[in-house]
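Private note to self, pasted from the team thread so I don't lose it. Backbone tokens:
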């Protein structure tokens, strides 16, 4: 009986060794390796070994579900073949030297929950195809050279909790659809070139805990609706061109106490309401 059990376990182990990802997925990984100078990675892949042994790769039921190559000296571009990893739930290449653009094929990754391409050398726009990733919870593209306007359809990411796009070169206004993402907890858009106002529809973002618009070119009245966001714990909207009156509570919540830049380029503090009724008057 003991020998039978041993043989059975050996058989199962042999099957597990034979199990492997599909050719399409393996080819996509090889193209990623080759297009980002894999031979110079800090931790390299042995392409002759099973994919399950490759650094930063996580498999589930013989499908690639996670790529985490943080700080691994990736130099080059993300290949369009990345879109063939259709079971992928996490793609993390934080702190590398990836250049080029974000391939639109990334919109094929319908299972993706985490997309972190931050701290690289990416350029170009955010492809609108990213807005098709309905399962996405974490989108981090900060510290790149991305430009253009934010995708108008970004509000389609109904499960998004983290949107971190700071230190890029984005222009234009914040899309109205962004205020429809009620699950969003962290919104970091600081150090870009965004213009326009902050909509009073921000009141819909009831889960928001951290808001940073610091160092942009936004203007108009600071919406008093921000006070209704009970979960908001951290905010920095200073060094924009906002004007008007703000409440004492909002000024205290802002990291730099609502320090703005006027048309002469001089830093000024916004006027603080002297009583609780001032905000109501200002809205009228």
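Design output:
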């Amino acid at each position: 009986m003991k020998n039978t059990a041993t043989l059975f376990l050996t058989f199962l182990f042999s099957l597990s060794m034979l199990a492997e990802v599909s050719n399409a997925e393996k080819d996509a990984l090889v193209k990623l390796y080759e297009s980002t100078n894999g031979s110079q990675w800090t931790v390299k892949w042995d392409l002759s070994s099973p994919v399950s042994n490759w650094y930063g790769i996580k498999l589930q039921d013989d499908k690639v579900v996670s790529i985490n190559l943080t700080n691994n000296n990736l130099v080059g571009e993300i290949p369009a073949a990345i879109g063939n990893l259709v079971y992928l739930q996490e793609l993390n290449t934080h702190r590398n030297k990836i250049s080029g653009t974000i391939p639109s094929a990334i919109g094929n990754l319908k299972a993706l929950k985490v997309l972190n391409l931050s701290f690289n050398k990416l350029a170009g726009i955010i492809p609108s195809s990213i807005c098709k990733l309905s399962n996405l919870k974490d989108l981090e593209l900060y510290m790149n050279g991305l430009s253009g306007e934010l995708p108008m359809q970004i509000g389609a990411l109904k499960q998004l909790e983290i949107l971190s796009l700071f230190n890029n070169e984005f222009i234009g206004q914040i899309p109205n659809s962004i205020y429809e993402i009620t699950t969003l907890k962290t919104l970091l858009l600081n150090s870009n070139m965004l213009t326009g106002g902050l909509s009073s529809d921000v009141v819909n973002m009831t889960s928001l805990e951290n808001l940073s618009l610091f160092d942009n070119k936004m203007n108009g009245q600071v919406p008093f609706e921000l006070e209704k966001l009970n979960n908001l714990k951290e905010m920095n909207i200073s060094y924009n061109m906002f004007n008007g009156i703000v409440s004492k509570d909002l000024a205290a919540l802002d990291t730099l106490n609502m320090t703005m830049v006027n048309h002469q380029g001089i830093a000024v503090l916004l006027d603080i309401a002297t009583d609780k009724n001032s905000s109501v008057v200002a809205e009228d």
